[in-house]
Amino acid sequence: MAQAEADFDGAPATRPGKSKGLVLGGILALVLGGAGFYGVWSGLILGGATPDGNDAAPPAIAALPDIAFVPMDPILIPLGVGGRVLRFRGQVEVARSHVDDVTTLMPRIVDVLNSYLRAVEPSELEEPAGLNRLRAQMLRRAQIVTGEGRVRDLLIMEFVFN
After folding, report:
1. How far apart are CA 89 and CA 141, in angstroms?
2. Together in a domain, 74 and 151
3. pTM, 2 dp
4. Between the CA atoms of 112, 151, 91 and 132, what dihedral angle is there, to the nearest 10 degrees?
5. Residue 93, beta-bridge partner list
6. Stretch 133-153: mean pLDDT, rounded?
7. 37 DSSP 8-state letter
8. Average predicted confidence (pLDDT) for the chain
9. What percent of the chain stands above pLDDT 90?
10. Which has the least CB within 10 A, 45, 60, 126, 143?
11. Hey, which bits of the chain come out as E strands?
């Protein structure tokens, strides 16, 4: 009877197995969490080694497009009074099937670009965004000379203004 009165005094009665189960559950959760972390970190879970023991194969690399680069003859343009000169050298990016066509038309491309660059004001060459604008204009002129679909891009290899 004295035990029953002690339970009603405000102190709850605890079962001896309840706290033991909580501690055991906490330890088990820590162990399983650590094992899961190690499995993912080492690659045992969600990737890493293949069944034969080798590392995973590298991802497939896409093949390069079927392109070729046709070099242009260097262009040297005197810019007015003062002895300033523009040196330009570039390459034209084309599909391999159009290399012969573009090579045949290369003197015409160089002529058109030479005429265009002679008409450019020196102040345009000094602007920070001037090279991008010139490149776009030269690419469009090369595409017009060769016909649509032959020239994909114009690469500037040398552009010296001094």
Report:
1. 16
2. yes
3. 0.62
4. 80
5. 69, 153
6. 95
7. H
8. 85
9. 51
10. 60
11. 67-71, 75-78, 85-95, 151-161
Q: Angle between the 99-119 and 130-146 helix axes, to the nearest 10 degrees? A: 130
Q: How far apart are CA 133 and CA 114, in angstroms?
A: 16
Q: How far apart (Å, rounded) are the C-alpha atoms in residues 103 and 109?
A: 10
Q: Region of 66 please: left (phi>0), alpha (psi -120 to 50) or beta.
A: beta
**Do 117 and 88 contact (CB within 8 A), yes or no?**
yes
Whole-angstrom distance, CA of residue 102 vs CA of residue 108? 10
CATH number at residue 93: 3.30.479
Side chain identity at residue 28, one-letter code: L
pLDDT single digits (tens) 86-121: 999 999 999 999 999 999 999 999 999 999 999 988
What DSSP designation does 78 have? E
Residues paired with 86 in a beta bridge: 77, 161
Residues 86 and 151 reside in one and the same domain? yes
User: Using CA atoms, how far apart are residues 147 and 151, in angstroms rounded to an integer?
Assistant: 8
